[in-house]
Amino acid sequence: MFYRENGQFKSSYSADLALFPVAQDRWAMWGLLAVCFVVVPFVASDYVFRAVITPFLILSLAAIGLNILVGYCGQISLGTGAFMAVGAYAAYNLQVRIEGMPLLLSLLGGGLCATAAGVLFGIPSLRIRGLYLAVATLAAQFFVDWFTNRMKWVTNDSSSGSVSVANLQIGGYAFETPVQKYLLCLSIVALFALLAKNLVRGAIGREWMAMRDMDVAAAVIGIRPVYAKLTAFAVSSFIVGLAGALWGFVHLGAWEPAAFGIDKSFQLLFMVIIGGLGSIAGSFFGAAFIVLLPLFLNYVPHWLGLSISTATASHLEHMIFGALIVFFLIVEPHGLARLWSTARQKLRLWPFPH
Amino acid sequence: MGFFLETVFGGLMAGMLYALVALGFVLIFKASGVFNFAQGAMVLFAALAMARYAEWFPQWFGFQSLLLANLLAFAAAVATMVVVAWLIERLALRRLVNQEGITLLMATLGISYFLDGAGQLLFGSATYKIDVGMPKDPMMVLENTFQGGLLLSKEDLYAAMIAAMLVALLTLFFQKTRTGRALRAVADDHQAAQSIGIPLARIWVIVWSVGGIVALVAGIIWGSKLGVQFSISLVALKAFPVVILGGLTSVPGAILGGLIIGVGEKLSEIYLGPFVGGGIENWFAYVLALGFLLVRPQGLFGDKIIDRV
């Protein structure tokens, strides 16, 4: 009722294959983008940009990358933090070492280096899979952690091991205020979300999903496992690496190897699980959830007039995260994205049950 | 030569501890097909419980004896781990029966977060010590064979003996008791075991309890050596390469894998480390296991993986 599709006939192939075949969805999407680009910059405060929206956008991008690997191709990875680190440090090195390197090129270069690392650590997936692979990807995490800590040239020989990036400029336009940084992130995230969405709908995406559903059967019907798995690793690590570069350059500004530790990997995996495996929109939901939950948990005791120590709060946060993961796996294994699509389905049919 | 042997012994002792944690994994994987990511959190939880009970009981009941405090604390910690196992079965596993391995893995990741938080909330998050009276002084052996002799830590030797005893006990339990047979039946085939009347839920509680007790022993040994604190749960991250090296379903594999990784890690750190800047202990085990998996994907003693459509 709210969502009437009667009379929306698809009279051409392109209409049939459209990203949003229902007109209401299309309008809603344009509306959402318009709000994000035009309204949000005027209403949100600097704090909200710095602490909520920008991290949310960047983590959504990383979650999209991980979702391609875990949700679409079924190759579970616990090394996402490592690929983010590769992206961030590679982009940093490009920026520092090459005079006059454009910012966008170094961000993309960071993504490309992460792709190389991803393909390298993806090679074991050709022989091993499932639980074994999950552990194997931890190798990437520990190796990169060690590498960024011990190899001095990675951090441009800085004594403390931390690096910093200043004056972000694209074509002479400086990104200094939180609003400008937000718009930069939003543009990149919107672009790559669109690309990812189209990629997973295409031939390559269907190959990934076939691999996920049953790799032996997929190989029998002529899908090349090597190609399918390695492309999934490549595309996933590119997006994750780009997100890592953004996280370092735009969100943190200055960072040290601990910023991309194993906790980040777990956090991203949680986003993907809670948001919804195999759903681009789910990556956004999951990231929003994980970014907002700690803030929410911090504010609740304030509202209730309780004062709890930061240590207690962080333990409680751990417990709630853990419990929610289990809860979601039991109650809604497809995550928030499925809840959203159920709600949408209900709106289409309301008030009739069928 | 003496130095080399000392390194090897040091590695074997560290490997024994990895093997203990890995053993917990293998037991749970064997009997329930769950790759238990929470083993490290269970080690932390158990060690924290043990350390704090041993501190609290003398205060509550007003006695002095260290032995009594340790015994009571051990019993209470075992009881705690059984309760934890029961809760895990009740609240999580029971509702996830017949899900894919990956789903279960992620559920244990959630459990691990929960246990990390709960343990530190209940028992505190400072560094605590466990004093079970392990001798701290090192001893010299083979003084006549090598110059300077071999310096061995008695504590490590005791730890290795305890670990060996635990393995022997577990083997007996699995081979000789009714419950042990039931556990092996469940490991072979859930449905078949259920159809001949083996209660799956009870078996899971038992196996997670056993996993918890193994975690407790590992936690006590580790904690009495280095103190109980959050970093103990990271030991589990060392145990992962051990289990994949040894094969997920093999108890001897876990032991051997632990020893190989313990020795390999120490030797590589000392003989390879200086060339690449040191600290390679953190990833060496993983790269070793990864290289091995490329040659033999099922690990040393793992079951052969057969693909069928």
UniProtKB/TrEMBL annotation, chain A:
InterPro entries: ABC_transp_permease (IPR001851), LivM-like (IPR043428). Keywords: Cell membrane, Membrane, Transmembrane, Transmembrane helix. The chain crosses the membrane at residues 27-49, 56-89, 101-123, 130-148, 179-196, 233-254, 266-299, 319-340. It holds the Pfam family BPD_transp_2. It is found in: Cell membrane. Signal peptide: none annotated. GO terms for molecular function: branched-chain amino acid transmembrane transporter activity. It is a multi-pass membrane protein. Its main location: membrane. One of its GO terms (cellular component) is plasma membrane. PANTHER family: ABC TRANSPORTER PERMEASE PROTEIN, HIGH-AFFINITY BRANCHED-CHAIN AMINO ACID TRANSPORT SYSTEM PERMEASE. This is Branched-chain amino acid ABC transporter permease. It comes from Rhodoferax koreensis. The lineage of its organism: Bacteria, Pseudomonadati, Pseudomonadota, Betaproteobacteria, Burkholderiales.
From TrEMBL, chain B:
One of its GO terms (molecular function) is transmembrane transporter activity. GO terms for biological process: amino acid transport. GO terms for cellular component: plasma membrane. This is Branched-chain amino acid ABC transporter permease. Keywords: Amino-acid transport, Cell membrane, Membrane, Transmembrane, Transmembrane helix, Transport. PANTHER family: ABC TRANSPORTER PERMEASE PROTEIN, BRANCHED-CHAIN AMINO ACID TRANSPORT SYSTEM PERMEASE PROTEIN LIVH. It is a multi-pass membrane protein. The chain crosses the membrane at residues 12-29, 34-54, 66-89, 101-123, 157-174, 203-222, 242-263, 270-295. It comes from the Bacteria. Belongs to the binding-protein-dependent transport system permease family. LivHM subfamily. Its main location: membrane. It is found in: Cell membrane.
